[in-house]
Amino acid sequence: MNDMEAVLKKHPRAGRDALIPILQEVQESQGYLSREAVTRISKHLNLPAAKIYGVATFYNQFRFQPKGKYHFTVCRGTACHVKGSNRVLEMAQKMLKLKPGQTSRDRLFSLETVACMGACGLSPVMNLNGEFYAKVTPQKLVKIIQECRETESKNGH
Ligand code: FES
Question: Could you tell me which residue, 111 or 60, shows the higher pLDDT?
Fold first, then answer.
């Protein structure tokens, strides 16, 4: 049985209220919500796929594309916002040419925002592939992205 079926099996005869937990568990196990996954969930819950997309896009914790090799998460919680996280996010969007939730075509970069990373004392914070960066500025971010690009060009991309 694949991960997807294992998740659905935990929610037998589930109704609409199981939608968010199911989406969370599927995303947890697969990294994102593929079109196939949404179709399967739609069948299981007897809910139209369009409805599921509608609900899932409302909560911006869900992604519909696999993560990139370099996955950036920018915190936009209150503490980080006060310290200028929106400027960091704007710079990330500009440099990566991505909106939160998107992955670049070459699958190298992806961007996401979260409501709080639990490190408010270090705000604004950002995370790249699980590594935390404290007190990030747009300039610091530019350097980090440039380093990723340099690593890739050395790898022959
Ligand atoms: S608000 Fe950003 S870490 Fe808490």
Answer: 111
